[in-house]
Amino acid sequence: MKDFYPALASVAILLSSSYATAQNQPLTTLPEGGTTTMYHRSGGAYYAILGNKYATIEYNYLPSEIVEYDNGDVYIKDFFSQYDYTYYGEHPYIKGHRDGQNITFEFPQLMAVRNYGKDTSYFYVSMVEYSSSAKTFIPVSADKNRYTISINDDGTITADIQENGMIFPGKIDHDNEWVYEGEVFSTWTPMTHTIADIPQDMDITRMSMLDPYGMGRFIEMGADHDNIYLRGIFDMAPEAWIKGKRDGKHVTFDSGQYLGFSPSGTFFAFFTAAQYETVYDDEEKEDVRILKFKDSITFDYDESTQKLTAPEGWLLVYNKNPDHINYMEYVESPVIEATPDNISKTPTAPWDLGHHTPSGPDDLEYIYFCISALNHDGQLLDADNLYYRVFINGNPYTFTPGAYTYPGIERPTEFIPFNFDNGGSFTSYDALRIIYMYDTDIETMGIQLYYIEGEPSESNIIASSSLATYPASARNVTPMNPWNISHYVPSKPWDPSESVSFNLSASNTDGENIDPTKLYYRIFFDGEPYTFAAQPGINPEMSFVPVDYSDQYGIAFIVDGTKRTANIYADGMTSSTTGVQLYYIEGDPTEGNILAQSDIITDATSSSEMITLLKNIANTIYHNLSGYRIDNPQSGIFIKTVIYTDGSTETTKVRK
Fold first, then answer.
1. Interatomic CA distance for residues 47 and 80, integer angstroms
2. In whole angstroms, what is the distance from residue 46 CA to residue 52 CA?
């Protein structure tokens, strides 16, 4: 950052009391008939506390509006570059007059009025200079209180540093003290960037954009010959388009594309590409990642599906500048693809739950967890329809409105919108959610995610994730024992396989539903777990089988309601006992990740004949290997399903 070191100047004369009565209201409305030109402004600024400079700022690409009239009057809106006009809700003008190529502003001019209870403060734009006797910056004498800027032949407007930065426009209060803002020099350059021109008849497709962390948003994509257009990639610019150029299997988007004003209107926004680079931080004594500006970003492009895949470590950046990084928002390594119709509305279960217990009187209690807008198949859901509910000690927690506790909540509710963030008690950052809790005695907590259409209520729930709990052991996740274990042994030499059948439930031993995506079963022969070898639909080999797993042909593993059938392709296999055990596993299915398990239920007969003899057959159905039902099977291999009068079924493979 560049610093400006002023040299000492002459003593200034304090403002007279008449300065405070020059205006009584800031100028916020202009007469009609003026010509407005937008500029991007760059320059150097000071910050002050009670007349003492304590910081210098260098800035660029700041929006600036200048309005000119035929009589020579000229107005500049929001003159001070570092003043937070959005926060104060006012956008005042200062007035000058053009004479040839110069524009001169006579000061002081009122820029703000602040009411603090019964007290009113007035703030002005005035030239200030350094006083060697006062050892501070003070307003200049009335005869010197003017500011001149020059219009150059190329259309730029400049205000040079005066007296090596010792005289400049500053914001003063009614006590004639320089406070906070000051402009050392400025350059106004006409704004020539334009928003991408979009073909009127272009077909537009709704796409999902996902980052590597499972976060995403819906965007729009259009194509016109070799031009590819994307709209809505940034939260801060939902209507802005960027334009890319297709070259075979690649699409390139150039940096510097103009996205319009920021939502606050305080800066011009640009699309830029960036890449993470690792540098060594001498102060932190470690490698850190920083963003580096890139001229463009190139996606891999699949024309058949219109899928765009960004390279790893590259980013799309919502930026304050067209040619270097000054970001406000970014998307990392996104994959952009069409979302199929009629996808499952069941959200992915929350994860990484935790609870912070206060360690002192100034420490606050909070809970934290991660949620995603993806369904359990990894497809993007509409976040506007997603809500979560917090369970404390097994009961839904009701959040109530409160200026200190939960601002932004309008009425008592259990359902919190997916992206709700009130900047205090609720914090939303990518997948992470942090909630500060008040008046609670937390022993256990749970989080459940819901897809809701309409007002958030129990009756409007379309689908819900499984309930995630903390600590994990607080919830009973011990699966119910499997039942009806049977082991079919081929009775004819041409029968290609033996099979194991059994029934199971995705419930715990209390009869409550548990997450089926974390349930697995394992088959034991003579007490030893069996590993299924890699084969079509089974790749790689596995011994832990997901409870709802069916191979790609529906032959090796068959799912039929609560019944599971696994065909064993192993010549000469013999065993005296067959067992099945269910597991609740967190993470990859391994012994070390088992949180709970059922008993091993065994069948000592190693035959299905006993079960068959004890039941009456209600119907027998045959399917061919392609899954089509065959009423009168002749020759070939078929899947035979026997339906018994008690409602149970048995499925085997037969040859006729």
1. 11
2. 10
Q: Which residues pair with 638 in a beta bridge?
A: 654
Distance between CA atoms of 559 and 205, rounded to whole angstroms? 36
* Per-residue tokens: 284: 């932190």
Residue 511 has pLDDT above 60, yes or no: yes
Gyration radius from the chain CA atoms: 36
Peptide bond connecting 108 to the previous residue in cis, omega within 30 degrees of 0: yes
Query: Do the strands 563-568 and 498-503 form a parallel or antiparallel pair, or are they unpaired?
Result: antiparallel
Q: Which two tokens stand for residue 414?
A: 């259990």
Q: For residue 425, what is the DSSP state?
A: S
Which residues fall within 8 angstroms of residue 458, CB to CB, at 6 or more apart?
none
pLDDT level of residue 636 (50, 70, 90 thresholds):
low
Tell me the Ramachandran region of residue 256: left when phi exceeds 0, alpha when psi lies from -120 to 50, beta otherwise: left
- 535 pLDDT band, cuts 50/70/90, is low
Cα 402 to Cα 413: distance, rounded to the nearest angstrom: 13
d(CA 353, CA 472): 9
In the chain, how long is the greatest CA-to-CA distance?
115
pLDDT in tens, 27-41: 999 999 999 999 999
610 pLDDT band, cuts 50/70/90, is very low
pLDDT of residue 14: 36
Q: What is the average pLDDT across 330-336? A: 95
Task: Report d(CA 568, CA 566) in Å as an integer.
Answer: 6
454 Rama sector, left if φ>0, alpha if ψ -120 to 50, beta otherwise: left
Q: What is the bridge-based pairing of β-strands 296-302 and 286-294? A: unpaired
Closest CA to 343 of 467, 204, 208: 208
- Once rounded to an integer, what is the mean pLDDT over residues 582-602? 87
The predicted structure's pLDDT at residue 143: 93
Sign of the C-alpha dihedral, residues 450, 454, 457, 458?
negative
User: Each residue of 172-204: pLDDT tens digit?
Assistant: 998 889 999 999 999 999 999 999 889 988 989
Structure letter (DSSP) for residue 360: S
User: Residue 342: left if φ>0, alpha if ψ -120 to 50, beta else—which one?
Assistant: left
Q: Tell me the CA distances in angstroms from 357 to 360, 362, 417, 437, 442, one per residue in order.
A: 9, 12, 25, 10, 9
Structure confidence by residue, pLDDT tens digits, 270-303? 999 999 988 887 877 778 888 999 999 999 999 8
- Report residue 432 CA to chain centroid gap: 9
- State whether the Cα torsion 222-228-232-236 is positive or negative: negative
Instruction: Say what the pLDDT of residue 646 is.
Output: 55
Q: Is the pLDDT of residue 63 over 50?
A: yes
- Nearby residues of 388 by Cβ (< 8 Å), 6 or more positions away: 350, 371, 415, 416, 418, 433, 447, 448, 449, 450
- Global pTM exceeds 0.70: no
Q: How far apart are CA 229 and CA 225, in angstroms?
A: 11
The residues near 234 (Cβ < 8 Å, ≥ 6 apart) are 240, 259, 316, 318, 329, 331
Which residue do the tokens 């497809």 mark?
379
Query: Could you tell me which of 137, 196, 155, 153 has the C-alpha nearest to residue 66?
Result: 155
Count of other CB atoms within 10 angstroms of residue 420: 18
What the block records as the tokens of 466 is: 């499984």
Query: How many H-runs (helices) and E-runs (strands) does the chain carry?
Result: 2, 49
Nearest to 107 by CA among 141, 157, 150, 138: 141
Q: Is the pLDDT of residue 7 over 90?
A: no
Task: Flag the least confident range among 76-85, 407-416, 548-557.
Answer: 548-557
pLDDT at 125: 97
